């Protein structure tokens, strides 16, 4: 395989700031020549050369290691030159400028974000789902997410999609062949057990889809909104869950006027917890803007925690809030300040053990009582099932493509069930399912999609 010809690109690959080592990476064609010009010696492939990095006048910029990986056996599939020097911003900038100057006549330019990985994809070093996993691995904020990103990067997800797609293609081939011999069309479904094959395909797809949905939760996390009246303990709960002081907690009602977001992890799942301005009727304009925002956050949530003071059950405003919460978003009703009510509650029908149901919980943000149950329940209601824990990470794009493939397989199944004499429609649905699956690994992609995916990468990757 020969790499396609693109401009040579260069970037500082290590994170901005200071570090023990800083790496500059160059990718393109004929980099052996560039290496010779930079170091006045030829670089042996995949050999660590300890060299002086000098400028055009022979003045030392740094001393370090140069590595040359001739294409196609490199990260990008092109020639790759890697310079490892000291990790300081000024020294790396000088080295970068010197390289740019030296490679000017061959068109060397700064790389765009993700451009190295984009080339790896374009040169078939990895498929699109794997390329996305590179960014996800870098972004991963928990052990579980990092492990799963690595599984995707190794191709675990792509392999499942390919295996499924192979079956779709095989079935499609049989139909297409039959279409060419119309006299056989009638017994096609029988002859090739098309209905059974399709049913088992649908089952496999459902399994992958369920895993992808878990993988998406693990990658993108869940948006959890703390909603409720002022002073019920929303900020205190956020702090208790986060384990440090992020939100401002004060005993004056209406202090959290803007939102505070805190990211925490439960079982490796990232939760973006959003503390909102307390919901109530108000004359204060600044506060009412906060309240309008709270409702906007609630609309976007994966789960809403409707926090209430346990001492004020059946409160009218709480009923009004409950009434207004969107019906399509799961809500956990959480009664807080259990510590203050424990004595009183023993005699009443509201004792936790009697009323605690699936979506009602009793906690104390102050003592931490009930928080473990809340954590578990939260993940559960949001659709996280550790039993089917995804071994790979997935993105919304993947989930949508799998859903689309599922729809087309179902439509194919419907045609087959009605025994329509419509093999061409059956074939067409299989074709569409195939296309949806291929979009995951990137066999069919638009420049727009590639731009969207790679522009979110960091520079130098
Ligand atoms: P928010 O307005 O809903 O964010 O409520 P805050 O978190 O600011 O809490 C309001 C007041 O209630 C503060 O004085 C907290 O210390 C107090 N508070 C919050 N949770 C508890 C709890 O579980 N028990 C007790 N005793 N006090 C609490
Ligand atoms: Zn608050």
Automatic annotation (TrEMBL):
Keywords carried by this UniProt record: Cytoplasm, GTP-binding, Hydrolase, Magnesium, Metal-binding, Nucleotide-binding, Potassium, tRNA processing
Cytoplasm among keywords: yes
Annotated positions binding (6S)-5-formyl-5,6,7,8-tetrahydrofolate: 25, 82, 125, 461
Binding-site list for GTP: 231-236, 250-256, 275-278
Gene3D superfamilies in the record: P-loop containing nucleotide triphosphate hydrolases (3.40.50.300), Probable tRNA modification gtpase trme, domain 1 (3.30.1360.120), tRNA modification GTPase MnmE domain 2 (1.20.120.430)
EC numbers: 3.6.-.-
Ligand binding (Mg(2+)): 235, 256
Top-level taxon: Bacteria
Enzyme class: hydrolase
Cofactor note: Binds 1 potassium ion per subunit.
Classification via Pfam families: MMR_HSR1, MnmE_helical, TrmE_N
PANTHER family noted in UniProt: TRNA MODIFICATION GTPASE GTPBP3 (PTHR42714), TRNA MODIFICATION GTPASE GTPBP3, MITOCHONDRIAL (PTHR42714:SF2)
Subunit details: Homodimer. Heterotetramer of two MnmE and two MnmG subunits.
Assigned protein family: Belongs to the TRAFAC class TrmE-Era-EngA-EngB-Septin-like GTPase superfamily. TrmE GTPase family.
Function: Exhibits a very high intrinsic GTPase hydrolysis rate. Involved in the addition of a carboxymethylaminomethyl (cmnm) group at the wobble position (U34) of certain tRNAs, forming tRNA-cmnm(5)s(2)U34.
NCBIfam families xref list: mnmE_trmE_thdF (TIGR00450), PRK05291.1-3 (NF003661), small_GTP (TIGR00231)
The name this protein goes by in its record: tRNA modification GTPase MnmE
């Amino acid at each position: 395989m020969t790499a396609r010809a693109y401009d040579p690109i260069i970037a500082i690959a290590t994170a901005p700031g200071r570090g023990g080592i800083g790496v500059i990476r160059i990718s393109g064609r004929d980099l052996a020549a560039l290496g010779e010009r930079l170091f006045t010696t030829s670089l042996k492939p995949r050999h660590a050369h300890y060299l002086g990095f000098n400028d055009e006048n022979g003045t030392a910029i740094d001393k370090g290691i140069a590595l040359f990986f001739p294409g196609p056996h490199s990260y990008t599939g092109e020639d790759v030159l890697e310079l490892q020097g000291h990790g300081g911003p000024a020294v790396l900038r000088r080295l970068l400028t010197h390289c740019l100057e030296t490679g000017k006549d061959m068109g060397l330019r700064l790389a765009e974000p993700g451009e190295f990985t984009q080339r790896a994809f374009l040169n078939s070093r990895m498929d699109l789902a794997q390329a996305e996993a590179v960014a996800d691995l870098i972004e991963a904020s928990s052990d579980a997410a990092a492990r799963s990103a690595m599984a995707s990067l190794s191709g675990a997800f792509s392999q499942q999609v390919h295996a499924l797609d192979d079956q779709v293609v095989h079935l499609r081939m049989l139909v297409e062949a039959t279409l060419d011999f119309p006299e056989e069309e009638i017994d096609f479904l029988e002859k090739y057990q098309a209905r059974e094959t399709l049913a088992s395909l649908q089952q496999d797809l459902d399994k992958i889809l369920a895993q992808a949905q878990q993988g998406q939760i693990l990658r993108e996390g869940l948006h959890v909104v703390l909603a409720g009246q002022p002073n019920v303990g929303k900020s205190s709960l956020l702090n208790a869950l986060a384990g440090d002081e992020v939100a401002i907690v004060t005993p004056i009602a209406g202090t959290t006027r803007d939102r505070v977001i805190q990211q925490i992890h439960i079982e490796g799942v990232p939760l973006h917890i959003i503390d909102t301005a307390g919901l109530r009727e108000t004359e204060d304009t600044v506060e009412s803007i906060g309240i309008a925002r709270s409702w906007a956050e609630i609309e976007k949530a994966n789960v809403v925690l409707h926090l209430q003071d346990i001492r004020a059950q059946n409160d009218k405003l709480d009923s009004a809030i409950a009434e207004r919460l969107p019906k399509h978003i799961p809500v956990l009703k959480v009664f807080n300040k259990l510590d203050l009510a424990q004595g009183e509650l023993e005699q009443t029908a509201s004792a936790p053990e009697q009323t605690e149901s699936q979506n009602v919980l009793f906690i104390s943000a102050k003592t931490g009582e009930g928080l473990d149950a809340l954590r578990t329940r939260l993940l559960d209601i949001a659709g996280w099932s550790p039993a089917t824990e995804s071994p790979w990470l997935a993105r919304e794009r993947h989930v949508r493509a799998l859903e689309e493939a599922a729809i087309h397989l179902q439509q194919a199944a419907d045609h087959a069930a009605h025994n329509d004499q419509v093999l061409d429609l059956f074939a067409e649905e299989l074709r569409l399912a195939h296309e949806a699956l291929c979009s995951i690994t990137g066999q069919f992609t638009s420049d727009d999609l590639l731009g969207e995916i790679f522009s979110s990468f960091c520079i130098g990757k």
